[in-house]
Input
Amino acid sequence: MNDHSELKRLAYSATPGPWGYDGSYVCPARVEDGTTYVETWRSVADCAQPENTKFIAAANPAVVLALIAENERVVALNHQQFRMALQKNLEIDQLKAENEALRKDAEKWKIVQRCMDMLQSDERNASIWTACSLLLISTAHKLNSAISTVVEEGVTVGEEKIGDWRVTVERVKEVSP
Output
């Protein structure tokens, strides 16, 4: 039952609680100085089964209204927590996507780092320089094709060639996220 408006209307129009019972009669009750007095001359229901009499007396309008109010409070809290959970899930999904993009980018740059490590470990070996330079040029093209230019050239001093390759990566524009 989601809409309690009819039950509320009935509870407000019924004889207010608390209720008590006297034999088979459900009657309004009042408490004075810790003593409950059942007003048997004003019965609100008559039941042949004692269990039903006790239940009806306990389920008086005040109790019903309190239960409805508690239910409405819990439902509102659940809706609020559900909205918060949805927002957190959206944030988690966004962070996962950002993490995956960073992971892919890191994998690309690991290739470049391996080449740089190889170059630093054996600078005298020209074939390693050449192979790594070509790999760096290829990787730089892939990594920066939309945002950079890559220039490859022999390293010279004056007319004398002193190295095989130099790679220059120059940013030409920023990429919008």
The chain has a mean pLDDT of 76. Residues 61 and 67 are 10 Å apart (CA to CA). DSSP finds four helices and six strands in the chain. The first strand starts at residue 19 and ends at 22.
